[in-house]
Design goal:
22% strand
Length: 169
C-alpha cells in the first residue's frame, strides 16, 4: 500500500539509481486538483533556461489505484525529470524519454495510461445531460448557452427532442 512518504522515497531512489539528483528545495507533492493526469513535472522557463520546479502526483493516484500502476506513474515522472537532468531540455515523450523509460523499467512511455483514460471516462460533471430515448449523453462542468437553450436542442444519436439536465452536487 502506497502513502505519500513511500512515493517520495521511491522518486528519490529512482533518481539516485539513474545518477540524477533532485534540485535543491524542489518539492515532491500531492495535488488534489489533478484530475486529468496522475502525475506531472512542472517547469519554469527564464531567458533561455528551462528547469523543473516540482514533481506532482494526483491525490486520486493514492486513493484507489493498484500498487503497480502507482509505481509506473512514479517511474514515468522520474523519466521526465531524468531527461531534463541529462540534457537541460524538456523532452516530452520523444525517443530520449522512451530510452530512459526502458533504462529505469517504466512500461508506460506514452502520454496516458489505462487508469488515466478510465478516470477521464468516469468524470463527474456538475450538469448531466439526458435524452429521453438514449439516457445519459454527456455533461458540462459549468453553466453556459448550451444548457440555457437545451429545450431547443436535439440528441445527435437518436434525434430525441426533449433533452434535460440534472445538476449534480
Amino acid at each position: 500500500m502506497y502513502n505519500f512518504e513511500r512515493v517520495q522515497n521511491e522518486v528519490l531512489e529512482t533518481l539516485k539509481k539513474a545518477n540524477a539528483s533532485l534540485l535543491v528545495n524542489m518539492p515532491i507533492r500531492l495535488n488534489g486538483r489533478l484530475t486529468r493526469c496522475l502525475g506531472r513535472v512542472m517547469y519554469r522557463t527564464t531567458v533561455g533556461n528551462t528547469y523543473p520546479t516540482c514533481i506532482e502526483f494526483s491525490k486520486l493516484l493514492l486513493q484507489d489505484t493498484h500498487d503497480e500502476t502507482i509505481h509506473q506513474v512514479i517511474l514515468h515522472e522520474c523519466a521526465h525529470y531524468i531527461a531534463w537532468y541529462r540534457t537541460g531540455e524538456r523532452h516530452g515523450h520523444d525517443l530520449m524519454f522512451k530510452q530512459i523509460c526502458a533504462e529505469i523499467g517504466c512500461t508506460n512511455d506514452g502520454a496516458k495510461c489505462d487508469v488515466e483514460e478510465l478516470r477521464t471516462a468516469e468524470k463527474h460533471y456538475k450538469y448531466a445531460i439526458y435524452c429521453p430515448n438514449c439516457g445519459f449523453i454527456g455533461g458540462m462542468s459549468r453553466w453556459g448557452n448550451t444548457l440555457a437553450k437545451l429545450p431547443y436542442c436535439t440528441c445527435k444519436k437518436c434525434g430525441g427532442q426533449e433533452l434535460s439536465y440534472v445538476q449534480n452536487w
